[in-house]
Amino acid sequence: MRGFDPARLSRARESKGISRADLARRAGVGGATVQQWETGNRSPQVDTLALVAQTLEIPMSALVVVPEAERFPGDWRILLGLTQPQLGKMTGISTSMIARIERGEVLLTDDSARKLADALGISVTELQASYERARARPAGVPA
Fold this sequence. Notes:
By secondary structure, the protein is mostly helical. It has helices at residues 6-15, 20-27, 31-38, 46-56, 73-79, 84-91, 95-102, 110-120, 124-136. The protein has 9 helices and no strands.
């Protein structure tokens, strides 16, 4: 996951005085999962990390850091703890189309931009700017 910082997760958990095992139990994730995230051996899925953030009573932005001026459309979704299917359901846009928009592979229509911006709580202008960043990213850079 772009912008996920394992050290931030460790610090957040430790500041709450919660062991890895207790965090995993409270969040309903596998016991080894938190350890693998904190050591950087695995990257979390957005919905699972959202459960952990909720358990720690912190925003996703405390664990996932992507400067606003560098965000792609998918980064905005991740900061809300949403999967592509969840965002698709909120907007009436298919999951596959959400994925293609996030990667900058299809034209972002005005209608889709409005629906996505509303669901993500950002302006249409910001969504369009993040979409253009995704389209212009160098080859091999994931969106």
